[in-house]
Design goal:
7-stranded antiparallel sheet; 197 residues; 4-stranded antiparallel sheet; Lipoprotein; 11 strands
Length: 197
């Protein structure tokens, strides 16, 4: 009798675990592209919109629909790609200026994550770069006006390249170019580039 009761208890526990797993899978919400909003605002195959606190751009290509959005004057941008046939989210990535950061995700048409990749691969992180630029150079990377930040390679090193226009209203005057080692945060170079007029 004890064996039968034990078997029944184990069976009930297994069934309850199966049912919880199934519920969790079915409860995730699939993000969809808002086709009505896009069709109402588009000019040609895209539209760009600025509100008092954000900017967004949506566009249609042969591959699908794209949506880029960020808070006004923020260096962070969320980029999403949606399937053309189902309007479901296909790819999402966050950028700091032109540098992909955070987690890159690819979804199948049913909304399941098929690829998930950590893009924060540099030992000297973006928050550390922001702090270094503020503390060592008095440059606020969270204010995007007249600035750009790239990641590249130089002498087998990963390098953050920070470009600041000398005069954002007159870009031809030149720029300041600061290179920071993306692995240890050390200054590689800091120079002024003058442009020919």
């Amino acid at each position: 009798m004890k064996k039968i009761v034990t078997i029944l208890i184990v069976f009930v526990l297994i069934q309850s675990c199966k049912s919880q797993v199934g519920k969790n899978l079915n409860n995730h919400k699939i993000e969809k592209f808002n086709l009505n909003e896009f069709n109402n605002k588009k000019v040609g195959n895209d539209f760009f919109e600025t509100t008092k606190d954000s900017t967004s751009r949506m566009m249609e290509t042969d591959d699908g629909f794209y949506k880029y959005s960020n808070a006004l004057n923020s260096p962070y941008e969320i980029r999403k790609v949606y399937y053309k046939k189902t309007f479901n989210l296909k790819i999402e990535t966050t950028y700091f200026y032109s540098i992909p950061i955070g987690t890159y995700k690819v979804y199948d048409e049913d909304g399941n994550v098929t690829i998930e990749k950590n893009l924060d691969v540099y030992n000297f992180s973006i928050p550390e770069l922001i702090n270094k630029m503020k503390n060592d150079f008095n440059i606020d990377l969270l204010n995007t006006y007249g600035k750009g930040v790239l990641i590249g390679g130089e002498n087998n090193k990963s390098v953050y390249l920070i470009i600041i226009l000398i005069d954002a209203k007159a870009p031809k005057r030149g720029s300041r170019e600061i290179k920071i080692d993306a692995m240890n945060g050390e200054l590689i170079s800091d120079k002024i580039l003058k442009y020919e007029e």
